[in-house]
Amino acid sequence: DVKVTQSSRYLVKRTGEKVFLECVQDMDHENMFWYRQDPGLGLRLIYFSYDVKMKEKGDIPEGYSVSREKKERFSLILESASTNQTSMYLCASSLGRGISLRELFFGEGSRLTVL
Amino acid sequence: QKEVEQDPGPLSVPEGAIVSLNCTYSNSAFQYFMWYRQYSRKGPELLMYTYSSGNKEDGRFTAQVDKSSKYISLFIRDSQPSDSATYLCAMSATGTASKLTFGTGTRLQVTL
Fold first, then answer.
1. Which residues in A lie closer than 8 A to residue B105 (C-beta atoms)?
2. pLDDT (tens digit, 0 to 9) for every residue of chain A, 115 residues total?
3. DSSP per residue over A70-111, as a string?
4. Which has fewest Cβ within 10 Å: A61, A79, A92, B1?
5. Among A51, A80, A56, residue whose Cα is nearest residue A68
């Protein structure tokens, strides 16, 4: 089974802090994604990556950056956390192209609270 | 107006009922249609997908796509308490750069 592991299930940070969310997948998937999930807004794509060292902006990249130095690892960085970044963050991976690109395997999520 | 609209529910049904979950969309370029299921405090998991139009059946689950009406449905027969979850529709156009657009999810509760 594909396993997508997110480093922290729950985090509490203060406004202005730098926050790292780590994600690791163990099935050699090319594609990795970061979403945030908010009530009434659903899942919104922050950034995605089709290959090592490649990154593409999603729908809401402002205030975030990402890093993909190794194929299995995709990190989301909040340079200066703000209260409106309080959310559930979901990492996902997928294999290849076509339907496989869209068959996302999600981690269990990281719930971030910014005070 | 959102590209994908989904009734948030909650939808409460008795065990054994037939459940109908629906999404409408506005982007005529969408060709991939997917349903994800998300249990509480878990990440979503892919339940079913269809490409272009038509129906697809998998056990108790049937996915339907009506592209002329820009409307997709997921039917659950003989619903079970274990089906209690949030169901998310998701869609995308073809092309490697095309991203999934998710609905907001419908919360389903199947009661004994």
1. 42
2. 669 999 889 999 999 999 999 999 998 999 999 999 998 888 999 999 999 989 999 999 999 999 999 999 999 999 999 999 999 999 999 987 777 778 899 999 999 999 9
3. ETTEEEEEESS--GGG-EEEEEEEE-SSTHHHH--EE---EE
4. B1
5. A51
